[in-house]
Amino acid sequence: MKQYILPAIRLTLVSILVFTVLYTAIIWAIAQAGPNSGKGETVAVGDKVVGYKLEGQSFTADNYFNSRPSAVGYNAAGSGGSNKGPSNPDYLKTVQERVDTFLVHNPSVKKEEIPSELVTASGSGLDPNISVPGANVQVQRIAKARGIGEEKVRALIEKHTEQPLAGMFGTTKINVLLLNIDLDQIK
User: Fold this and answer.
1) How many CB atoms lie within 10 A of CB 33?
2) In 10 A of CB 114, how many CB atoms?
3) Which residues fall within 8 angstroms of residue 40, CB to CB, at 6 or more apart?
């Protein structure tokens, strides 16, 4: 029996050392090489920090691009989805309310033209990006609310469109915070 217990205890101690101390130290060291020493990449306008590049925020005013809805109220401390399936009546009611609200603010858009990311939350509830169609469907509302030409708004969308990594990993996307900050710079 001794021949089994001692190796098991040694393996347990080595595993504790590797997975709680060494692994944590390696991840911490990698994070230090990242933006803001692993504390997240802040976005500032002038001297004021207005948000984080990789964290979604709520934008609902007609003169801004709407961000993706959040199941956690954009609270990064408790990120997560709603855990409600696509046939859950509460979930369907929430999505329908979002569709109805979107249509009220975008009367020229038909229901079937609304990209799904504008009415459904992401798995983390903190997605900072929308798709190009998600931005394009909002152009008319924003141009009208700001009194500017649609071509200026479309040019901003094109400027902020991020292509997939190496042209194949991920999707084409637009960071809503960065887009809205530049939108405020248009005179």
Assistant:
1) 8
2) 18
3) 52, 53, 54, 55
Enumerate residues 6+ apart whose C-beta is below 8 A from 143: 149, 150, 152, 153
Helix 150-160 vs helix 139-146: crossing angle, to nearest 10: 120
Give this prediction's pTM: 0.79
pLDDT at res. 40: 76
39: number of Cβ within 10 Å: 11
Supply the pLDDT for residue 54.
84
Predicted confidence at residue 92, as pLDDT, reads 93
130/135 Cα distance (integer angstroms): 7
- Cα–Cα distance for residue pair 88/66, rounded to 1 Å: 25
The amino acid that residue 107 corresponds to is: P
Query: At which residue do the structure tokens 């004021």 appear?
Result: 48
CA 14/CA 11 separation, integer angstroms: 5
Tokens of 185: 């710079």
Please state, as a whole number, how many other Cβ atoms lie within 10 Å of the Cβ of residue 8: 9
Please answer whether residues 126 and 56 qualify as being in contact, where contact means their C-beta atoms are separated by less than 8 angstroms. Answer: yes
pLDDT digits (tens, 9 = 90+) for 100-146: 999 999 999 999 999 999 999 888 878 899 999 999 999 999 999 99
